Amino acid sequence: SPVTFSVSPALPCALYYWNNSQTPTTNNSFQITPDGHSNIVATVNIVYGTSNTNLSKTLQYQLFAPGVVPLITGSSKVCNGVTQTYSVSNLRPGYTVNWNSNTPNLTLMAQTATTADFKSNGNGTGSIHAVVVSDCGTHTVNPDFSVWVGAPSFQGGQVPPVTISGPTQLTPGYYATYSLPSA
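Given the sequence above, the corresponding structure tokens read:
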């Protein structure tokens, strides 16, 4: 979409030379259509009577609105051998996503313009990486999305089977508490 730059207040009888044009105009505004990749730069030389002023403004592309943070969404815990779908939040229309995983326990099975299916295998922490792509540039979604694959891991590095803690004998009529290490 075109972007309009303007000088305010408009000066009566002033001449505006927009973006190094050799032809003056009396219009205090100027439209530029972005090329889809570069920042937009508007320059104007304002001639008013016997004085002149040069102004410049640069508009940088922003893939997401201020305060909007794209995040990878999906299940953070996946059983071994299961395929899960992941997406990126806050995508604008026309944006696509490139997906990958640098961990051996998550395999990219399929992807559309905005989602990806990863199949889990093995046990342990996996990581999903996404890069948002648009005509205006790319944006790496940070942080990568962490996924636990397979059976739970217990504190202290234990892997199942774990032992249940609690008394081995009970007196009739009394209660006891039994527990497992945190997973």
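The chain is about 0% helix and 40% strand. Try to locate this feature in the token string yourself.
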